[in-house]
Amino acid sequence: MTYEVVVIEGDGIGQEVVPAAVAVLESLDIDFEFATADAGDATKEATGEALPAATYEAAANADATLFGAAGETAADVILPLREAVGSFVNIRPAKAYPGVDAVRPETDVVFLRENTEGVYAGHEDRLSEDLSTLTRVVTSSASRELAEYACEFVADGRGPDHRDGFTVAHKANVMRETDGRFRNEVLSVADEHGVDADEELMDAFATKLPLDPSQYGVVVCPNLAGDVLSDLAAGLVGGLGLLPSANIGHDNALFEPVHGTAPDIAGEGIANPTAAILSAAMLVEYLGHVEAGRRVRDAVESVLSDGPRTGDLGGSATTDEVTAAVVDRL
Ligand code: NAI
Ligand code: MG
Predict the structure, then answer these.
(1) Which ligand is located closest to the Cα atom of residue 232?
(2) pLDDT, tens digit, for every residue of 134-177?
(3) Which domains does the chain show, CATH number per domain?
């Protein structure tokens, strides 16, 4: 079986870390056919469009897509790309690794973020010079779909080992109708599946997570809350260069490092490829090659603990040196 993977480097260090991730994929015993596609600031300058229709179509029809980052045009690229793959859940693991300086070395959490609605559904209006409004969208169907995914995720043992079940973070005490619906649906799906689920008000969670991250494993969130809380967790584990993410759809998915184009270091060949390589590991797992995904992850962890490291982690290695070390240890 050959998998068709669309590769979109984008701008800045996307052009450095995505080739690193592709090099790791190529060293695995899996048949990939890579098709490159364009998006981002440079593409907009050249063609007038940040996300050409051909790239959207390619992502929509591929087995999976690997994306780097886009600069100013990030929102014009990522939101439509998530739509192209029909993504209903954004998976964002935040794990501290041995050998990496982390604010909270015991952090090992995976956020499952609703990826289609909430306040990001985009119904904003300017009603007068003084007044703007936003309509928040929450459906039972999207909430239940996310919860079904979360139940499968924990049943498959994909969450951190130290915690069973999942936590749902919400603010249903204030947003009784919207977050109330989200909370009730998620907890009722967990109950139907016999999955152990507890709940936290999202503001209290934002205090408790940095104080004691070991209490949490898989965390299920509405869209905006998941965006903010996963970035908070990112801050606990030692830097943006380490965090991968996946946008999962029904028969399609998009994988991307959490970081942006890093204009301050772009073009120097010193970006940390870890986030992009871990995104590639998630891609491999999504395609069903769970063992190969684990091997990539183990190789990355091994390099992080005693191999060459890039400047963001206090080392002086290049992107290529770190990538070669990962491939070497696979
Ligand atoms: P950023 O993630 O690009 O950079 C923040 C800081 O982290 C910088 O100091 C950078 O050098 C460092 N950093 C990030 N990734 C790194 C890596 N792999 N290795 C070493 N250091 C790394 O975020 P920033 O500066 O807020 O945004 C820069 C541009 O990226 C903006 O134009 C923004 O719109 C875009 N962006 C795009 C995203 C995407 O396409 N998914 C996400 C976030 C930002
Ligand atoms: Mg964010």
Answers:
(1) 2
(2) 999 999 999 999 999 999 999 999 999 999 999 999 999 999 99
(3) 1-88+243-329 (3.40.718.10), 103-237 (3.40.718.10)
